[in-house]
Design goal:
Blueprint lengths: L11 E7 L5 E13 L3 E6 L3 E4 L4 E3 L4 E6 L4 E8 L2 E9 L3 E2 L3 E13 L5 E4 L1 H10 L4 H20 L6 H14 L1
Parallel strand pairs: 1-10
Antiparallel strand pairs: 1-2, 2-3, 2-4, 3-6, 4-5, 6-7, 7-8, 8-10, 9-10, 10-11
Amino acid sequence: MVQESIPVEGSKMRIQSYKHDGSIHRVWSETTILKGTDHVVIGGNNRTLVTESDGRKWVTREPAIVYFHKEFWFNVICMFREDGVYYYCNLSSPYVADEEAIKYIDYDLDIKVYPDGKYHLLDEDEYKLHRNRMNYSNDIDKILRHNVDELQQWIERKKGPFAPDFIKVWQQRFNNEH
């Protein structure tokens, strides 16, 4: 068993996403840790190599800030594009971090938030398929549904990574690292 650790500010880490059955889903090769505590990890990356479970590789197109929290079943990617900040929110297990990577289980459901604040819940069909195929428990389903509601409240209230000050502070800090 690998010892869990707190990511060190300024270090570079991989992010590893798994599926409920334990199979690897996606790996981001490098993220710069901007903040690491026992509850929150904030990182930044740009033009990062991503490897999919089927071996396909691609490189992210824009700078992004990633936000993970120990108490919530979601993580948030804030992507900086020419027309504003887009958010891609993964419904997922809370993260664990060790010396190898930041790790979490991806539970299919996603919320995409646009620069104008509008948002959409995505991949409900994929969730239903995987819930049956990988036997997500009723408890996990309840937790995820509750966290979809929590995440929507964060978006609407501009809380956490959706707060304008969050973006300014962490984008500036990431830019200073590069």
